Amino acid sequence: MQLENTLFEALGIEIVKYEKDEIILKMPVTPKVHQPLGFLHGGASVALAESAASMGGFLHIDPEKQSVFGIEINANHVKSKRDGYVQAKATPKHVGRTTMVWEINIVDENEKLISISRCTLGVVDLKS
């Protein structure tokens, strides 16, 4: 898996845990991911959430025959953040043949909830 020259690198996202039933990604909260008023941008949180879900989905497929793509995501941002870091903890709620549903909780250093998301992934067969 290549992370260089991707959104991971641009946002400073690191992989903390990479297992089939739990993905944890860490992202620093710096001006790079702020909205104009100096707080964590909701879009950066959503990008982190979908990245975690997609990485988890990848572990449930045969990458030589299939791929996964985000087809829907929603987010509730419940707390703001100016600095430090956040972690996305993604767990599968449904793993099917053509779709998956992942829940992603984004928490701060003190495990306080920052954002909660649900992401639906489509499982797509690759053409030979």
Automatic annotation (TrEMBL):
Keywords on record: Hydrolase
Hydrolase among keywords: yes
Classification via InterPro entries: HotDog_dom_sf (IPR029069), PAAI_dom (IPR003736), Thioestr_dom (IPR006683)
Keyword Hydrolase: yes
Domain Thioesterase: start-end pairs: 38-113
Pfam families: 4HBT
CDD domains per UniProt: PaaI_thioesterase
Protein origin, superkingdom: Bacteria
PANTHER family for the chain: 1,4-DIHYDROXY-2-NAPHTHOYL-COA THIOESTERASE 1
Family, per entry: Belongs to the thioesterase PaaI family.
Protein name (database record): Hotdog fold thioesterase
